[in-house]
């Protein structure tokens, strides 16, 4: 496909979002790396193109639009506000060399308001309408249900924090859950360290940036973890049921209501899901056919904390044509208070690929 074709499709999508009431906004291609590192930790370095500015310090080529648009919104305090944007984003693909490292996104974001379910339905339906009659499969999930399940586990706050931190890293999450549940032993090196009365007695002189107080604090935390009781097998089994859940949205809601009887911590998230499905149905979305996956969204950028969705080509192996979700917690980290926020993006090059345009 040609650059002109992508540009025309970008303009068409942008016009759809403007017609839906969104205000066009622009963000710089170069963004502060400090902000991203504060949000996501050092892992983001492996997925971003970093550079250095003699005045501004470490900078990153824009990996997505959401963070700078949220920062812009938190300064305006408009409520509610709808934004649209279009431009290139940049992602390293070390592990998947065939994926695009640079591509255009066109987005629609809704921030503020007093009806989260209606906002989620609006964004989903607006994205779907912009995609037209393309043969796409819609998938949905709810990170909020999974987070609520973790927060309700009968274990230490430190363990729950570790699991929440790694929800977006499924292998690491599973390894932690198995260890906290007593299914696998503590690593031998750690067990040997903790067996010593004074682990630092024969340690070499300190080197690096960690102080002795920080090291001692870490050892104390490891001792506390080693002494904690395993997470109950029944709780892990319920968590596994949520993670493995694949059904229509209406069927998934019924199943989650059943799980909530034994895991009351997820009840508020399940009620939010019910309100969302009602709002989607009011916008002519058939929730009896809409797909729901308990693990959906766990490999996305790490700011989604509720409803998540994606649209996929019915045939072939293209990346998602459109994705989106709720990210209230991100607004709290970038501003003074949390603001309800939900949005989504479309890749115009993939829209053209599905259409078969050259």
Question: Could you explain the architecture of this structure?
Answer:
The protein is an alpha+beta fold and 358 residues long. It has three domains: 1-27 and 62-135 and 314-358, BirA Bifunctional Protein, domain 2 (2-Layer Sandwich), CATH 3.30.930.10; 137-182 and 232-310, Bira Bifunctional Protein, Domain 2 (BirA Bifunctional Protein, domain 2), CATH 3.30.930; 185-229, no CATH class. Helix content is 45%, strand content 18%. It has helices at 3-19, 33-40, 66-76, 116-131, 143-151, 157-165, 170-180, 188-195, 212-227, 233-244, 249-262, 267-282, 328-334, 348-355; strands spanning 23-24, 30-32, 50-53, 57-61, 81-90, 102-111, 136-142, 246-248, 291-293, 307-313, 322-326, 341-346. It has a nine-stranded mixed beta sheet, sandwiched between helices. A three-stranded antiparallel beta sheet has the order 2-4-3. Strand 10 and strand 11 form a beta hairpin. The model has no long low-confidence stretch (mean pLDDT 87).
- In total, the number of domains comes to 3
Distance between the termini: 4 Å
Give the CATH architecture of the largest domain: 2-Layer Sandwich
The CATH superfamily of the largest domain is known as Bira Bifunctional Protein, Domain 2
Overall pLDDT metric = 87
| Tally of DSSP β-strands | 12
Tell me roughly what share of residues is in helical segments: 40-55%
- Name the CATH class of the largest domain: Alpha Beta
Radius of gyration: 22 Å
């Amino acid at each position: 496909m040609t650059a002109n074709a992508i540009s025309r499709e970008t303009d068409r999508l942008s016009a759809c979002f403007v017609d839906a009431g969104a205000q066009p906004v622009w963000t710089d291609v170069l963004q502060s790396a400090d902000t991203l590192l504060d949000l996501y930790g050092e892992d983001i370095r492996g997925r971003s193109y970093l550079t250095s500015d003699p005045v501004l310090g470490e900078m990153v080529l824009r990996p997505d639009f959401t963070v700078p648009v949220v920062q812009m919104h938190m300064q305006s305090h408009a409520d509610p506000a709808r934004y649209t944007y279009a431009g290139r984003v940049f992602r390293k693909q070390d592990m998947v060399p065939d994926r695009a490292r640079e591509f255009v996104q066109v987005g629609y974001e809704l921030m503020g308001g007093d009806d989260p379910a209606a906002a989620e339905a609006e964004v989903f339906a607006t994205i779907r309408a912009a995609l037209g009659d393309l043969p796409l499969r819609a998938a949905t999930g709810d990170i909020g249900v999974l987070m609520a399940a973790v927060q309700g586990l009968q274990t230490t706050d430190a363990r729950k924090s570790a699991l929440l931190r790694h929800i977006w890293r499924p292998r690491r999450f599973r390894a932690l859950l198995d260890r906290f549940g007593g299914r696998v032993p503590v690593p031998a090196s750690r067990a040997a360290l903790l067996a010593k009365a004074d682990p630092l007695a024969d340690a070499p002189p300190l080197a690096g940036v960690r102080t002795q107080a920080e090291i001692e604090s870490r050892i104390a935390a490891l001792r506390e973890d080693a002494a904690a009781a395993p997470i109950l097998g029944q709780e892990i089994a319920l968590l596994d049921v949520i993670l493995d859940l694949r059904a229509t949205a209406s069927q998934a809601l019924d199943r989650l209501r059943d799980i909530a009887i034994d895991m009351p911590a997820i009840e508020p998230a399940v009620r939010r899901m019910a309100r969302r499905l009602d709002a989607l149905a009011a916008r002519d979305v058939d929730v009896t056919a809409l797909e729901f996956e308990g693990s959906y969204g766990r490999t996305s950028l790490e700011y989604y904390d509720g409803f998540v969705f994606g649209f996929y080509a019915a045939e072939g192996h293209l990346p998602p044509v459109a994705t989106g979700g709720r990210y209230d917690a991100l607004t709290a980290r970038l501003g003074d208070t949390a603001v309800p926020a939900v949005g989504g993006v479309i890749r115009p090059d993939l829209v053209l690929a599905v259409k078969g345009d050259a």
